[in-house]
Amino acid sequence: MNMKELLGNELKRISLSGSEVSGFRRVANDLIKKLKERGLRAYIGGSLAKGTMVRRLGRQDVDIFVVFDYSEDILGLEKVLKKIDLPGVLKKVHGSRDYFQIVCDGVLLEVIPVVKNKDPELAENVTDVSLSHVKYIGGEVKKNPEIADEIKLAKAFCRANRCYGAESYMHGFSGYSLEILVIYFGGFVKFLKGMTKVGGRKSVVGGRWSVVGGRVKGDEQVVIDPLMYFRNKGEVLRELNSSKLQCPVVLIDPTYKFRNVTAGLGFETFGKFADVAREFLKSSSLEFFKKREIDVEGMKKFAVKNKARFVEINLRTDRQEGDIAGTKMKKLLDFFARELTRKQQKVLMKEFDYLGGQRAKGYLVVEEKLEIEVRGPSVGLGDAIKKFRRAKGDRVFKKKGFWWVRDKSGIVEVFKLVKKVEREMGAGMRIRDF
């Protein structure tokens, strides 16, 4: 099967029929009508408005933006939603700005309050520029209707390979970033090629990447400026907030030149994406569009081969499900991995799997050392040495001009230390069968 046939088959699988799209629009417009009767301005947003919606298992998400003149007016939205006849169950979701979900049969309506703004620089919240995103992508799709299908393929590919989602625990591509990138490169396959090769276009500057074991090491960041707002990469890096540049790819928002759309893209996630994109381009198959589960058995075999230990971790939290819960648990797993490294345990592999709700799994492969040597004061520091020897007892020794101590270490010892800070981190963990 050639590439064209393969992608055509996948597109049939992930595309919604005209009647399905009309059904979602009807549900959304019914709610919009009720909101308008209460004096509120509301519009369909997201992938439904842009024409880039991809079929999903379970419920489809449909965004509805409710526009307010002032942020203070948003407080009245909940009262309005509670008074009108809704097509499903209302749920409030806490975030940088609270929004609402209406859980219906086959569709999840997300009612998102935004504040009207003419200047993106003055936007109080990132959601306030969402309608400008809809306008930009919708305009590009109108100019080139076929690009919508290319965007769908990119979303399906990244979702299947665990690199889709702007949530903090995922650190993947957002839907909007994929839309911009596919439009910029001119198609799905071109997007994969463009993101995995060095340079190649005027507005892509630098980008020497080596991907080793799913991790990215870059001598330079890739900078993509679709509308050429800046003269060169140096200007981009000077003008944008440095806190938004800690990522492998800098993608300038076509609707606002000072925003990096891929600020949340993580190095590990991008490394995995680059690996699988190269694999797909080398030997294309529909298997790349099937959701990849974490290869637990493969990790176990890798551990045995490398004389290391495989660790499975159950994670829980009492925080709000979704991004908040997932992020809390991911941070705890990352903290555990960092502490293992600090205690001279070599973490060879790490995976995180958010299971939904308030549960997640973590998987590590660790080259374990049960005893480590920790350096203390240098020879000649009298008072410091006395305190050190008094505290450490007969475990101390001299080596290379310093006093050292032999300490117990290993996975269990580090786990005990991490358990002490669980509550502060808002999540808990348990090592399974260890």
Quick structural summary:
The chain has 434 residues and is α+β, with helices and mostly antiparallel strands. The chain is 39% helix and 24% strand. The protein folds into four domains: 17-141, Beta Polymerase, domain 2; 144-292, CCA tRNA nucleotidyltransferase, domain 2 (Poly(a)-polymerase, middle domain), CATH 1.10.1410; 296-370 and 410-431, Alpha-Beta Plaits (2-Layer Sandwich); 371-408, no CATH class.
What's the arrangement of secondary structure elements?
Layout: H1 3-14, H2 18-37, E1 41-44, H3 46-50, E2 60-68, H4 77-83, E3 89-93, E4 99-103, E5 107-115, H5 130-143, H6 147-160, H7 175-185, H8 188-196, E6 204-205, E7 209-212, E8 215-218, E9 222-224, H9 233-239, E10 249-253, E11 256-260, H10 267-282, H11 296-305, E12 309-316, H12 323-342, E13 346-356, E14 359-367, E15 371-378, H13 382-392, E16 396-399, E17 402-408, H14 411-419, H15 422-425, E18 428-431
Parallel strand pairs: 2-5, 9-10
Antiparallel strand pairs: 1-2, 3-4, 4-5, 6-9, 7-8, 10-11, 12-14, 12-18, 13-14, 15-17, 16-17
Helix pairs in contact: 1-6, 6-7, 7-8, 8-10, 12-14
